[in-house]
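[09:14] KT: can someone run the structure on this one? pasting the chain below
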Amino acid sequence: MLHAHLTTLHVVALILELLAERPDTAEALLAGSGIKPADLASGERRITRTQELQVCANALALRADLGLQLGRRLHVSSYGLLGYAALSSATFGDAWRLLLQYPALLGTYFKLDLTVEGELAWVGAAEYRHEPALERFNVEMCLASLKLICDELLGQPLPLAAAQFSYPQPAYAKRYAASFPCPLQFDAARNAFAFPADWLRRRLPLADPVTHLEVLDRCRKQNAEFTTRQAWLQRVREELASHLAEPPGLEALAQQMHCSPRTLRRHLQELGTHYQELLDELRFERAKTLLGQEDWPICRIAEELGFSESASFRHAFQRWSGVAPSRFRA
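[09:31] RB: done, structure tokens below
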């Protein structure tokens, strides 16, 4: 199942709306992400998951319950055409089957599922494979948003029977009640919430078969285009990642991708990125991994990432993360 590697600036914009009371706060929230305040004005701009997670990590230092706060602001309309297709579905169960059919458009960090166990239906989020320190944050944001979507699809609050979370109870656990007004279990085997399964047969108040078919057709086309672009971008990333010590230039990379440099540049621009940004992102990811291994001196890491001298690597890492490599390692 395809998970999105690119996403919109929607979550980043929400974070700044919540926390950026002053210009210097906005700069601190965006530090190390490569995102500029001016980028937020572009509806077409796409960013990588790494960039989004960097902003989230910066923001968590200011607000521990940020995931819950963001989840309660990610409405069904935040998911574009897919959200409107779900709203116009015939029943609640139809809407859920549609949402699960297009995970790339849903843009989740998880594999989502809907299972019926006896009289309860469970919505679960599993297979998280990103920054471990941000797993709880992403679970909170994901499940809180899905609960909000349920309420908006139905036009009334969906009654919950239970909610389970795989991590220890956080200090702000009382704030979970705003999204999950039901018995809570932490240190559980899964991340999920449950509701009476018979609600899946409920007709939706905004059901419209004509609108639904029209929007669904556009979702199929958007998904095909998106997944094709994602697969192409993944090939570009793999080519660069396998040659970080001696990265190919734009022309050599274009030759490996069987296109002209101009076509490569245009495709990357359409995906909201460019050659140097991709190279920096991959170097940054690899650098963080190597800095976590104490037997790798800075000079060796610089060489591994294709820098001619340690000073150049230190300068680049400071630009990517906002801190020096030695401080990051400490």
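[09:33] KT: thanks! The two ends are 37 Å apart (CA to CA).
[09:34] RB: yep, looked fine to me
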